[in-house]
Amino acid sequence: MLSPEGDTLYSICSDHRMLEVDIFNVTTQEFIFSGKTKVSHDVVIKFVCCNIRGEFLVCSCEEIDDDFFEIEELTFSLRKNGSHKNLWERKSSKYFGESSSPRLIFSPTEEFIVTWGSLGEGDGLHILDARCGETRQSLLKNRDDIVDCKFACDDESLLCCTSDNFLRLFQIRTGDLLCILDIEERPFSLGASAREDLVAFGLSSGRLKFIHVELPRRKESDRKGIKVTDL
User: Fold this and answer.
1) Residues 147, 20: Cα–Cα separation, whole Å
2) Which end of the chain is more exposed for a tag (fewer CB within 10 A), N or C?
């Protein structure tokens, strides 16, 4: 798994309920860091990511049976390397059969956590404070068709593609929608780097498109929006 900056590779494995993460620099191929954390035997791990400080963001799932419904209780927790104690945690419940593919990414500065397909407070895109787990912004409220999100250009500009063929650029600190673009086909993947303006995304037809993102402060007076290139 690549970091939001696009220059760090995370290798994650689970063995005997011990999660291990190795981090490499993809440019120099140098080993950077190795970390591990314990998880309980009675939970299913849905998603894991790690920041450069060696803190683990873990999404685990436990099935709960009541008289009428089967419920999945999701727990999101942040913990330090080598520890099973949580710095913070949040819980969310979903009925069995509902779409439950939680996704979480750290912002490049690791000040924020972006998550979708996860929180019980509603579908959509949620921006959390990485220090405490509290929600700072909720975007695309009640949308359950978010395909992928990536940071582009800087630490606070987030690209989000949805299955309705639209690509949106948000400023996550303010929640402002900076740009919306119809890419004319349904996307299935998105590739970007917080240090570059070039973004690539794969389409359902098998084609690739590249866009060049120009943030407002970088735009020239005679150039606006996003440039699109087909491949």
Assistant:
1) 27
2) C
